[in-house]
Amino acid sequence: GEALGQDLFAQGIRDILDNCEKDNAPITNILMEINCFKYAENKEYVDLARQVLGWALARAATGAYSDGGAPPAQQKLAVAALDACLDKWKPMMKKIVQDESEQCEFIETLEQFVMEHQHDAFAGTFPFGLKALWVTDIIESEGVQLWTERRKVFEEGAPERSLFDSKLTQQILAMLAEESSDEESGSGSSED
Q1: What are the DSSP calls for 64-128, one per residue?
Q2: pTM attached to this predicted model
């Protein structure tokens, strides 16, 4: 029942996005199509977030956003492909985000993608993708906080925490927390 419905929803979103990308459709048209489909299928924005980023990451893995169009063969090329992918689809992803739930879903979708690519150039790219989601303003501190809380539920060493516990991810999280607190303290200082 529900798994089949999720698969049909996922396939429907992929088909819409494939056709829109092939036709070079404007983001506003793509958003209208996927939103109509979301409503028709009685899905939430969080479901849409998972499918859209999953589709874009799969495209990045095939080399769609790489020079030469070949799947990235090295980690630095995979990171460049992630950056290009997020840069290209940022306007659409930002419109899908309603609150921290969709932001957290984007992080979890990236996390799942990297876990599924542990034997190619995308292995180890999670911290870079997390930073790219932040730099492009697709996610904010609330989404990162929710993801962090969801990971801390698991014991240290649990597979669900493997990317969260990595040294580089922890460094990125510390940097994002620092940037977030700098932004908060900086915006309040302009008041008279």
Answers
A1: TTSGGGSPP-SHHHHHHHHHHHHHHHHHHHHHH--SHHHHHHHHHHHHHHHHHTTTSTTTT-HHH
A2: 0.91
SS3 13: helix
Per-residue pLDDT of the chain (192 residues; tens, 9 = 90+): 667 666 899 999 999 999 999 999 999 999 999 999 999 999 999 999 999 999 999 999 999 988 888 899 999 999 999 999 999 999 999 999 989 999 999 999 999 999 999 999 999 999 999 999 999 999 999 999 999 999 999 999 999 999 999 999 999 999 998 988 887 776 544 444
**Cα(123)–Cα(73) distance, rounded to whole angstroms?**
11
Q: Which two tokens stand for residue 173?
A: 């999280």
Q: Are 62 and 38 contacting, i.e. CB atoms less than 8 angstroms apart?
A: no
